[in-house]
Design brief:
By secondary structure, this protein is an alpha/beta fold. It is about 45% helix and about 15% strand. The protein has a six-stranded parallel beta sheet with strand order 2-1-3-4-5-6, sandwiched between helices. Strand 1, helix 1 and strand 2 form a beta-alpha-beta unit.
């Protein structure tokens, strides 16, 4: 009998493009599990509600209750031997809901995987109430296996329950996106890039001000910004800032684009500036995709950036244009652009490609099913 996986996750609206890294990651996991030959039974989480009014809070509560009933029904009446339950969780405010799901699976006799998606687990735990800490810790203890998007979460898990089965399950670059060979970069100019959502939380003002500092020193440095300008007031502020600097003619703004067109923006770029301070930043797809094309990532120590980058030289000490410019200047002055670029490309090739993560996930699941057989 083919092993079955009961997969509880938020996949978003199937008729639309996935919203955010969570939905993208869950759809990718689903595709991988099916590709590996498992019988995957979906238990879909309610779609997100974007506003936070009292009415929306009531709607979410109603949807959660419906999910709990559906989850219980699926595990009780669609039961199959040789099966595992995989719950994609986001902890934080949803930990109480996720705690109920893990308890139901445990009560009905299933081995359960609790997957920690996104970042911020340690922050939530260290700054949470006693009630939050209790629910989070009991969820981790009762789950049989922990999957984590970030290696950084292992220290937290070990502090709660030493020797808990832990699997590092990071994001990755799709096989049809990254180049098979290192893309040679221009040698007569230095091209910097930011791509992704253009919002206040992404600190695009830091990107522009960093470029301005560098442009005053180097007459061959350029900046491209590719993204969706989601906040009109912030967009106006950034465009005014770009228009007011001395070297504005060396900055080019492009609209958001699909992955096929994104490749054209990445192929000739040297440096990717990623000044995020998102409290829930986990493993950024944009960061991995930039590195896959040989862009040198200069980023903050937020989420799982440090582990993904794998080079502390490229992690800024504080969120300031001066700090970003200082790191980039050292690379330029040291004549190390090509070396760092090739290292970034190779790090993805060695660790974060679809093929590598698929093989690891399949091997992990095969191991868990064997443990269940002998358990």
């Amino acid at each position: 009998m083919i092993p079955r996986i009961y997969f509880f996750a938020n996949f978003g609206n199937w008729n639309q493009q996935p919203f955010g890294g969570g939905e993208i990651g869950n759809r990718r996991t689903l595709e991988m599990l099916r590709k590996a030959g498992y019988d995957v039974h979906l238990i879909e989480k309610y779609n997100r509600v974007f506003k936070h009014t009292r009415k929306d809070a009531f709607i979410i509560g109603f949807l959660m209750a419906g999910n709990i009933i559906k989850f219980f029904y699926s595990l009780l009446f669609v039961r199959r031997r040789n099966s595992l339950v995989h719950i994609a969780g986001f902890y934080g405010s949803t930990i109480y809901f996720e705690r109920i799901l893990v308890s139901i699976a445990h009560l009905l006799g299933y081995r359960t995987i609790y997957e920690m998606r996104g970042g911020g687990a340690s922050f939530y735990y260290n700054n949470g109430s006693r009630l939050y800490k209790h629910f989070f810790a009991s969820t981790i203890r009762q789950a049989d296996y922990i999957f984590s998007q970030g290696q950084e979460n292992k220290f937290l898990i070990d502090s709660i329950t030493p020797e808990k089965h832990f699997f590092y399950y990071p994001n990755y670059v799709m096989h049809d996106f990254y180049p098979d060979v290192y893309p040679n970069k221009p040698t007569d100019r230095i091209n910097m890039l930011y791509f992704g959502r253009v919002s206040k939380q992404k600190n695009i003002d830091v990107v522009v001000d960093t470029f301005n500092l560098l442009a005053a020193k180097y007459n061959n440095i350029y900046l491209d910004i590719v993204g969706n300008w989601t906040e009109p007031a912030y967009a106006k502020k950034i465009k005014l800032r770009i228009g007011s600097i001395e070297h504005t003619e060396r900055i080019t703004i492009h609209p958001a684009c699909d992955h096929k067109r994104l490749k054209k923006h990445l192929i000739d770029k040297h440096i990717y500036i990623f000044p995020t301070q998102e409290p829930r930043e986990g493993h950024s797809n944009a960061l991995t995709e930039a590195m896959a094309w040989g862009l040198i990532p200069i980023t903050t120590d937020i989420g799982f950036n440090r582990t993904v980058v794998g080079n502390d030289t490229l992690i800024v000490k504080d969120l300031s244009p001066k700090s970003f410019a200082s790191v980039i200047t050292r690379i330029i002055e040291g004549g190390e652009i090509q070396d760092f670029s090739k290292q970034a490309y190779q790090r993805i090739q060695n660790n974060y490609t679809e093929v590598i993560i698929f093989n690891k996930l399949k091997e992990e699941y095969n191991t868990l099913f064997k443990l269940q057989s002998f358990g």
